Design the sequence.
């Protein structure tokens, strides 16, 4: 779908997760990277294959972020793997099973005909278009995790995310099992402090997608030393624009950051570049990459097909 759109409209292409990363970058602490490729007057933002881009950070913005190393289940990477696993499963468990699914006009572009559709995670993709000034046509692939039907039959789209408690000693001593029902505000305030960047990204993604609601699940370990079993303690639902105000996320500022990044990238020569968040400073850097760097197998196959077509044309 993105390839089709690139041939017909738009000159900047990205996913909601990539744009949210850039738009909320002032809150990030850990390092991350994004690939940007300029082809003619078009820009394509993408993530590296097999990178940790999709892993959810845990307590990234806390005063004392996780410091365990090696194979400890409380090491930053293992906590990220755990949080990502929980988030994926919770988003599916919130959906009604066995009933008729809400369907968009076009099928899921990532589901092939020979795949068992019942085993594919339920998610909807929406392609949205923004004009940033007179010269930038932005095409974004956004995601919805589910839909809700109101009393009058109106449909509302929902983004579903999960906050997870891994050790209450590292959450300002707020034990979710004891405080979630009586002091939910205190629990959320602690999460806003410890996971400011993650929550801002989720909110930004929901607003980019046009979702009417952002649903947060509170999930805790069954036992503090067991990272494999978890318990759902509660849920909370927000309207993304109201939640953005609550967490001091200015979308005007976020769009300004994105426009600045796009303007910088449009001034680059044709080629592939790496946008890297400096691991030690609140700075993002742009590095030029040699041809073929971080190319996926699909890109290499497409290039080979194009070369074969050119050879056939020359022979004819």
Sequence:
């Amino acid at each position: 779908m993105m390839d089709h759109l690139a041939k017909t409209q738009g000159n900047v292409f990205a996913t909601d997760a990539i744009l949210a990363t850039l738009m909320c970058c002032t809150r990030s602490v850990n390092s991350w990277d994004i690939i940007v490729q300029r082809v003619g007057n078009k820009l394509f933002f993408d993530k590296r294959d097999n990178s940790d881009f999709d892993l959810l950070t845990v307590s990234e913005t806390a005063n004392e972020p996780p410091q365990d190393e090696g194979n400890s289940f409380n090491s930053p990477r293992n906590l990220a793997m755990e949080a990502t696993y929980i988030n994926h499963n919770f988003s599916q468990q919130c959906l009604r099973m066995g009933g008729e699914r809400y369907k968009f006009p076009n099928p899921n572009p990532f589901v092939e005909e020979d795949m068992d559709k019942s085993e594919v995670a339920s998610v909807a993709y929406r392609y949205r278009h923004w004009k940033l000034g007179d010269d930038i046509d932005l095409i974004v692939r956004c995601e919805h995790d589910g839909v809700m039907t109101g009393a009058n039959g109106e449909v509302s789209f929902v983004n579903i995310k999960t906050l997870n408690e891994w050790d209450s000693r590292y959450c300002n001593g707020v034990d979710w099992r004891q405080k979630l029902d009586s002091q939910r505000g205190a629990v959320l305030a602690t999460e806003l402090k410890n996971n400011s960047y993650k929550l801002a990204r989720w909110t930004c993604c929901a607003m980019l997608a046009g979702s009417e609601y952002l649903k947060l699940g509170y999930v805790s370990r069954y036992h503090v030393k067991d990272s494999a079993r978890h318990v759902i303690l509660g849920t909370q639902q927000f309207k993304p624009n109201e939640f953005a105000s609550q967490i001091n996320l200015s979308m005007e500022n976020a769009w300004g950051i994105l426009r600045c990044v796009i303007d910088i990238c449009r001034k680059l020569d044709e080629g592939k570049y790496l946008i890297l968040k400096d691991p030690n400073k609140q700075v993002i850097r742009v590095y030029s990459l040699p041809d073929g760097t971080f190319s996926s197998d699909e890109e290499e196959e497409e290039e080979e097909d194009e070369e074969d077509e050119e050879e056939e044309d020359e022979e004819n």
Observations:
- Residues 309-316 have pLDDT under 50 and may be disordered.
- The CA atoms of residues 298 and 304 lie 10 Å apart.
